[in-house]
Amino acid sequence: MYAIETDKLTKTYGTSRGITNLQLNVDQGDFFGFIGPNGAGKSTTIRTLLGLISPTGGSAKVLSYDIVTEKDNILENVGYLPSEINFSSGMKVKDVIKYSATLRHKNCKEISDVLCERLGIDVSKKVDALSLGNRKKVGIICAIQHEPKLLILDEPTSGLDPLMQREFFEILTEQNKKGATIFFSSHILSEVQSHCNTAAFIRDGRIIVSDSVEKLEETGAKKVEVVGAFESGDLKGISDLKHDGNSTSFLFKGDISELLSTLADCKLQNVNITEPTLEEIFMNYYEA
After folding, report:
1. Which residues, including other chains, have CB under 8 Å from residue 279's CB and lie 6 or more apart?
2. Are residues 147 and 234 in the same domain?
3. Residues 6+ apart with CB under 8 A from 254
4. Chain-wide mean pLDDT for the chain?
């Protein structure tokens, strides 16, 4: 059973592109990374899945609920963190957290107290005085404290310092081990590579690839970095070719013996052949 499933989900804004024919399946219990640069359609996808904006075409279900006719059930069972956090002016942090729990008809004080301590939040402060990072922490607490079946988080680490990012992902991992599905958008590939089981790349409102992180990493491509006079000649399988002074780097997916033969014919001072990072693989997809 899927926590999220879409069928040709489309959202347009007049003549402007939003998302187009999205085919996306997220298994229950998955830790899923939704990757793309700013403007790729990540936030539009998330807001459409939550029923906050209406689709132009196609359909989708979240936790088996239809995003158009059963959006109240979706919001009841999902923890959502928007990319930009805003609270009602004049409220204290403790009031915001309590109000969020009240909307769920739950007493979440025990869990919220623990989360506040772990994230270093002073609940007596007014939200108007909070920095971006601390507003993001309060949003995280509101999203997680009722321990929802599905967490949908839009660019959750923006504004968090590295220590808080690590603590945040530890909290997410704990929730995932308890059975919660984690779906978070990001433009930071290292976050996805470190924490996610599955990932999808979105470009210009379309999914260009979706698979397990392990399979995405096993593309068969190699990253080649050389120093010296490199000439590719008739070598096939090169992509993402970059020159920087006397250094050249590229991704290679072809006959390794032909690669070695070509390198042997070049006057090189150094050669380094490694596995590419997920970011380099993604950029190869994206630029293609």
Report:
1. 189, 190, 193
2. no
3. 235, 236, 237, 238
4. 90
